[in-house]
Design a protein that fits this description.
By secondary structure, the chain is an alpha/beta fold. The protein is built from 22 helices and 16 strands. The protein has a six-stranded mixed sheet, with helices on both faces. A two-stranded antiparallel sheet has the order 1-2. Strands 3-6 form a two-stranded parallel sheet. The N and C termini lie far apart (79 Å).
């Protein structure tokens, strides 16, 4: 065997850590000299700015010389011919800086691919969008072989592939290039990618418009999804958001603040499903019942502290309306843990009816700030030789302490006038707010669009349709009715598949979707039957209302499917 003098085996577990230890002094030296350096693994970016090309050239060459000298002193050799540079400027006339490293010229390029993002010298990101769209279209071509309008992969399988594979490819690093989606050319490229997948999701004809296909597939336009991803990233990074004003977004605690694994407290909790089990596990000096509540849009939490069979004290906690019950439950448990560690007896039982909050508390890798604080209080109590047990109890099972905590939590939500005890805005609220903004913008496009005329008869509002469409089992016949693209004479004549658009009932009348559903005498029996079941006469104005209500929706869509099958069979020849 030969002894290894330096280096690491490629793919080794310790290699990245050793590389970070080696590279960190260089990054600190660059920062001390005033040079901006950013590193991810072995990819290092140096950024210089200046008023003239000569100034940039001087600073960059000096930094490159320091990097080369550092490499020599650490027995590392850099490859200048593999190092690239790019000049970003809005000036129409400018000199090009000449960069050298170890006597070798550094090549200037018009675009650079960094961590999967193609950055061009004008920061248009056109090349990046073209690249990701090309990859997404390749996925579509593979999918199209196994999914047709009448056979192939189930729409839910296609939806899973779209959300798990295609969207992540498009949305990667969306916060970097999201401003580019405001350009019409970028939106057209994204629409080309999305239209095919949307048509497969709702089993529509290839001639179906993007507006109709998106609405029936229940997915948002990709440019809006890019903006959503970028806005959510900014919110998580602490960028102020208009919807929450000056409130801070709830951010997970840093893993670096977690105690050493040797100091972790192994937390467990018992599940008590009835009064007998509670009585058997309530022999503590103090029992604390916690609960959180959201009622009438207001949020509160409470603690009920019991000594023996009597309530000793209570504590009400107020949270803003945008907080969740989950946060309220965690806050109550956190305050109970602090109370137990600070000033209560040596034996304490903490009871909560929130299984999700207790599971978060139990998991040491869960970095929710309230859970981290609660674990710290429990660890502190353990160091004081206090005995604290956690219990999950079934809600509304007749336990007096739990019912009392529930009552207090509702009072805290409805009547509390005090300052909020916890006001970090949950990410879920940010997501809902961003989604509502996206739906409003999509609705404006949908209603003002020149396409999807038939679909708008059934779904005049895209926001309402987005809530309804998930409850509809869309198949190819239902899609034909809701889009107007299918085996109807009017459609077949439009694409030269039939000599006349006439209906069998009248040569002067076109066989359109609305005609066969509402007026055609040849289908009067089927229409009368469904009208009797619905208790209402079918008309164009009543169609959106029929799709809003669950009972009428099921009957009406079944009628639509029967009519589409009859018309398709009639026009097949």
């Amino acid at each position: 065997m030969r002894d290894t003098g330096k280096g690491c085996v490629q793919g080794s577990i310790g290699g990245p850590i050793l590389w970070n230890l080696l590279l960190d002094p260089l990054l600190q030296e660059m920062e001390a000299k005033g040079d901006y350096a950013q590193a991810f693994a072995d990819d290092v970016v140096l950024l210089f700015e200046g008023e003239t090309a000569l100034e940039i050239e001087r600073r960059a060459n000096a930094a490159l010389e320091r990097v080369r000298a550092w490499g020599q002193s650490n027995k590392l050799r850099f490859a200048p011919h593999k190092t690239n540079a790019m000049l970003v400027t809005r000036k129409l006339k400018y000199d090009t800086p000449r960069l050298r490293m170890g006597g070798i010229d550094v090549v200037l390029l018009s675009e650079i691919k960094l961590l999967g993002v193609v950055i061009d010298h004008k920061l248009t990101f056109n090349a990046h969008v073209a690249n990701v769209c090309k990859r997404a279209v390749a996925f579509y071509h593979q999918l199209a072989r196994a999914a047709r309008a009448s056979w192939g992969l189930h729409p839910e399988v296609i939806r899973t592939i779209y959300r798990a594979v295609v969207e992540p490819v498009i949305l990667y690093a969306a916060a970097v290039w999201s401003p580019a989606v405001s350009k019409l050319g970028i939106r057209k490229q994204l629409n080309v990618v999305q239209r095919g997948f949307a048509q497969k999701l709702c089993r529509a004809y290839r001639t179906t418009s993007l507006n109709s296909a998106l609405l029936l597939a229940g997915i948002l336009p990709l440019d809006l999804r890019v903006r959503e991803a970028a806005t959510l990233y900014e919110a998580r990074r602490g960028v102020p958001q208009r919807v929450i004003g000056d409130r801070e977004v709830e951010r997970m605690s840093s893993a670096l603040r977690s105690p050493h694994p040797a100091c972790h407290v192994d937390l467990e909790f018992k599940c008590l499903v009835d009064r007998e089990q509670f009585i058997a596990n309530s022999e503590h000096e103090v029992n604390i019942f916690t609960d959180g509540s959201k009622i009438e849009g207001k949020v509160g939490a409470a603690l009920s502290v019991w000594t023996g069979a009597a309530e000793a004290r209570t504590l009400k906690l107020a949270l803003p309306s945008y907080c969740t019950v989950y946060q309220a439950e965690l806050l109550a448990i956190c305050r109970a843990a602090r109370m137990a560690a600070d000033n209560l007896a040596g034996s304490v039982g903490i009871y909560s009816d929130s299984l999700s909050a207790l599971l978060t508390l139990k998991n040491p890798k869960a970095l929710h700030p309230l859970a981290v604080e609660a674990r710290e209080h429990l660890r502190r109590a353990l160091l004081q030789d206090k005995h604290i047990e956690l219990f999950w109890i079934k809600a509304h099972a007749g336990l007096e302490g739990n019912e009392r905590a529930d009552h207090l939590a509702k009072e805290a939500a409805l009547k509390s006038k005090r300052a909020f005890d916890y006001d970090s805005c949950p990410v879920s609220f940010i997501k809902r707010s961003i989604r509502m903004q996206s739906l409003d913008e999509w609705n404006q496009r949908y209603r003002a669009g020149e396409t999807a005329g038939v679909t708008r008869v059934f779904f005049p509002d895209a926001t309402a349709a987005h809530r309804i469409i998930g409850k509809i089992k869309v198949d190819r016949f239902v899609t034909q009715v809701l889009t107007g693209h299918g085996g109807f004479s009017e459609y077949l004549y439009r694409f030269k598949c039939k000599e006349s658009p006439s209906c069998v009932c009248d040569p002067e009348c076109s066989e359109s979707v609305l005609h066969v559903l509402l007026d055609c005498p040849a289908l009067a029996y089927e229409r009368l039957r469904v009208e009797c079941q619905l208790g209402i006469k079918l008309s164009k104005n009543i169609l959106p209302k029929l799709l809003e209500e669950e009972n009428s929706r099921k009957l009406f869509l079944q009628f639509c499917k029967e009519i589409a099958v009859l018309v398709n069979n009639r026009n097949r020849t």
